[in-house]
Amino acid sequence: MKKILIAAALAASTLAVQAKDIVDTAVAAGSFKTLATALQAAGLVDTLKGKGPFTVFAPTDEAFAKIPKADLEALLKDKAKLTAVLTYHVVPGKVMAKDVKAGMVKTVQGGSLTIGTMGGVTVNNAKVVKTDIVADNGVIHVIDTVVLPK
Question: What is 19-143's CATH topology?
Answer without folding.
Answer: FAS1 domain (2.30.180)
